[in-house]
Amino acid sequence: MSGFDAREARERFAEEARAERPDLALLCLLIGAGPDPDLDEAALDAAQIRLDELAGQLPYRPGGPRAWAQALRDLLGERYGFRGTAADYERLESSLLHRVLVRRRGLPILLSVVWVEVARRAGAPVYGVALPGHFVVGLGPPDGEGQVLVDPFDGGRILSRDDADSLVTGATGSRLEPSMLEPAEPLEVVTRILNNIRSWAAARPERSDVALWAVELGLAVPSHPALLRYEKGQLLVRRGDFLGGAAELEEYAGLVEVVDEGAAERVRKEAFAARALLN
After folding, report:
1. What count of Cα atoms within 13 Å lies in the side-chain half-sphere of residue 58?
2. Long-range contact set of residues 160-166: C-beta below 8 Å, sequence gap at least 24
3. Which candidate, 268, 241, 242, places its Cα nearest to that of 255?
4. 100-111 burial, b for 16+ CB within 10 Å, e for fewer?
5. 32, 33, 30: which is closest to 19 by C-alpha?
């Protein structure tokens, strides 16, 4: 098997991220091209076909949002066993859609992507809901009493408002706010996945390659935070690309100079020190 060229995968990701209606499944699958060098076009197609096949097994228009939620739980959670466990937080493949489709295990946000993409293909009124600390899925109108929330990490359990409030309180100490129940846009979902991967890699310095990949894709998302440029520079220096890292650090310094001259000067000193490592 011959996987994607890294540059090709990044360019394709960037192009899709700039599309008028970004394809969430495709973006999530392309994220896997860095950590999994064997991921190729055939594997990409196979994952999309699997989502289509699962959607084809849902009942035809089962009813309102709760009926959709029950149908998804019966199919994905019970019949096929898609769910998560605490151990999944320690595995990189829990953040890679093509691996989640095979293992039927993953982080809440990746399992939610499976629920959303399967339900969307079947015609359900579905969307992701980015609760603080725990991603879930919404069905039905997000601004009314008809909204139904499900937790794919718990096999598609239907959540009451009290359940959702408990999830938020457990993660943040704060109460559930109505604004937290709004649909998450595809690029918001993708950015959150990339942040999870960066956090995973940050705890494993030997996987700086994965951290760098996630940062590079994050930079390809429109309206990304400037701090990602600084993080990329640091990673390149750590990986021995002193010139490349210095260039990224200097670019970041130019971006922040207008608001914080002191920070810009400190970053330029880091860039100078990186170049000095070549001597």
Report:
1. 27
2. 164/131, 164/136
3. 268
4. bbeeebbbbbbb
5. 30
Measured between alpha carbons, how far is 202 from 200 in angstroms, rounded to an integer? Answer: 6
135 beta partners: 130
- Which tokens in the block code for residue 168? 């938020």
pLDDT tens per residue across span 186-201: 999 999 999 999 999 9
**What sign does the CA torsion over 35, 234, 223, 164 have?**
positive
103, two tokens: 């293992």
Residue 1 scores a pLDDT above 60: no
Cα–Cα distance measured from residue 256 to residue 251, given in angstroms and rounded to the nearest whole number: 9
Q: 1 CB contacts (<8 Å, ≥6 apart)?
A: 38, 40, 42, 43
> What are the E-state strand segments in the chain?
126-131, 134-139, 148-151, 157-159, 183-184
Taking the C-alpha atoms of residue 38 and residue 159, their distance in angstroms, rounded to an integer, is 38
Angle between helices 108-121 and 24-31 in degrees, nearest 10: 140
Q: Provide the pLDDT for residue 133.
A: 87
Going by pLDDT thresholds of 50, 70 and 90, the confidence category of residue 2 is low
The residue whose two tokens read 């940062």 is: 215
The predicted structure's pLDDT at residue 178: 87
